[in-house]
Amino acid sequence: xxxxxxxxxxxxxxxxxxxxxxxxxxxxxxxxxxxxxxxxxxxxxxxxxxxxxxxxxxxxxxxxxxxxxxxxxxxxxxxxxxxxxxxxxxxxxxxxxxxxxxxxxxxxxxxxxxxxxxxxxxxxxxxxxxxxxxxxxxxxxxxxxxxxxxxxxxxxxxxxxxxxxxxxxxxxxxxxxxxxxxxxxxxxxxxxxxxxxxxxxxxxxxxxxxxxxxxxxxxxxxxxxxxxxxxxxxxxxxxxxxxxxxxxxxxxxxxxxxxxxxxxxxxxxxxxxxxxxxxxxxxxxxxxxxxxxxxxxxxxxxxxxxxxxxxxxxxxxxxxxxxxxxxxxxxxxxxxxxxxxxxxxxxxxxxxxxxxxxxxxxxxxxxxxxxxxxxxxxxxxxxxxxxxxxxxxxxxxxxxxxxxxxxxxxxxxxxxxxxxxxxxxxxxxxxxxxxxxxxxxxxxxxxxxxxxxxxxxxxxxxxxxx
Length: 466
Hints:
Elements: H1 16-37, E1 47-49, E2 56-58, E3 64-66, H2 71-82, H3 99-112, E4 118-123, H4 124-147, H5 158-166, H6 172-183, H7 189-193, E5 199-203, H8 209-217, E6 225-226, E7 229-232, E8 235-239, E9 250-252, E10 258-263, E11 285-291, E12 299-311, E13 314-322, H9 336-347, E14 354-362, H10 363-366, E15 377-384, H11 391-404, H12 406-414, E16 421-424, H13 429-438, H14 454-462
Parallel strand pairs: 1-4, 4-5, 5-6, 15-16
Antiparallel strand pairs: 2-3, 7-8, 8-9, 9-13, 10-11, 11-12, 12-13, 14-15
């Protein structure tokens, strides 16, 4: 089941071929790429995988239903259970349903291993959340390492707690080292806690771009990153065979699904023309259409890609935007990439401010709570370094977007789009939103930059601080 955050929630049959394709065309290729590009990873060290047990249910006829926003998420969770010896987190911790408690256990067992070799998750946002939680709870974690226990603050079943504490031993020497490093601050904390950390494995493109940048600039300074696959609930789409290239580029997997391409100029047509792999042109943008083994036939997944190169005869693509993630109150069609570029430029002009997270809501979603009569954008920002912005600073974002988009500027000049409303939310608001939503079926939540859910928008509205 897809998440339903960016559109209608859908159920897809999960076929055996889907898993086979992922491992043979995706995971195997990525492992070979890691071996070639990150030779230090060949050392036999353990990995911390930030994966969480998914809430599951059943259909009326008893068929199991699990969340599947990313095919990678489900498969990596399965792999984690089969190859526990290579991960730091023990099996009982993987059954903990409360995400906050499960994250604490991931961190606890990771901190005990001074020779940790890699951090791994589906998305960079999950690893960023892990470091945010580490910064908040490091004293409690260090005390647990020192005493060889699991914090009494965690709400665990008695049997689970007893099993986990049976795996722990007091380690005052490691605790003293951890405490000394935390007291120095969190800039570059990852390589200081784990001097042999050689790789961070997580998707850091698309909506996870800002979290990837934050990790590289702050918590994980100097540690190599690898964004391995481009995948979705519909199946495996592409693999990254050139980790050093930015923005991230993915080689399409021609045997995973049958792909067709809608030219960008035809996106709004009801029955647009399509091209096949050998017909696309380098430098052009297309929406991806897939036919897969699960029964989807010529299905428009909404992702718009740019063809950047060809590997032999196969296209290499760069994700541009999702059609459903356009800001569009008057037909202006502002893409995520365009808005993020404007936002980064505005934040660079706010002294001391660092962007941690953001999302946008069209005023029609909020209704009367939007605070304005003309259609406009409501922007929620989580910043580090400032707790308030002047009206002039808030307007700077609107001004930057006008400079990026002539269409938006013309609508603002005519008054048919009202001024953008910029609101700051409290620290941790987005983490709280992701955690609260991932506790409900479907369990995997990936933050959308343009929210279509009034519930999510109201959640952030209640956490506005200025």
